[in-house]
Amino acid sequence: MQDGITETNHGIIDYLVVTSTEFWDGLPEDVRTQLKTIVDEVTTQRNAESTAVDLQNRQYILDTGAVIRELSKEQRAAWVDAMKPVWEQFAGDIGQDVIDTAVSYNASN
């Protein structure tokens, strides 16, 4: 068994619903409002459950005597810089605006 893990925080498993603007805007206002309320409630619940599982597994790692190594800001920045060519590779597929939004969001968190 390995002696530990490095916590990179490079990904997150959250609950996400994706739809087209055309579909969403085509819904009657009352249906859209009700659906948004349901999606918001379920998203909050599922994300909380995902976080709970993550914390339980993190504690399990520690309980087994393994070490969780955390990256310094400098190490994290090096990781992000190393991934930029990958982002560029997929910009045409998903849109630079999506990448820019993700980068902006990550910078604020």
Distance between the termini: 33 Å
Compute the number of helices: 4
Could you give the order of the helices and strands? EHHEHH
Major sheet size, sense and barrel closure? 2 strands, parallel
Helix content: 55-70%
Strands, count: 2
Inertia-based shape: flat
What structural class results from the helix and strand content? mainly alpha
Q: Can you give a write-up of this model?
A:
- The protein has helices at 21-26, 29-63, 73-94, 96-108; strands at residues 4-7, 67-70.
- By secondary structure, it is mainly alpha-helical.
- The chain folds into two domains: 1-70, no CATH class; 72-109.
- Strands 1-2 form a two-stranded parallel sheet.
- Helix 3 packs antiparallel against helix 4 (96-108).
- 0% of the residues are buried.
- The mean pLDDT is 89.
Summarize the structure.
This protein has 109 residues and is mainly α. Helix content is 70%, strand content 7%.
List keywords for this structure.
single chain, about 110 residues, mainly alpha
What's the arrangement of secondary structure elements?
Layout: E1 4-7, H1 21-26, H2 29-63, E2 67-70, H3 73-94, H4 96-108
Parallel strand pairs: 1-2
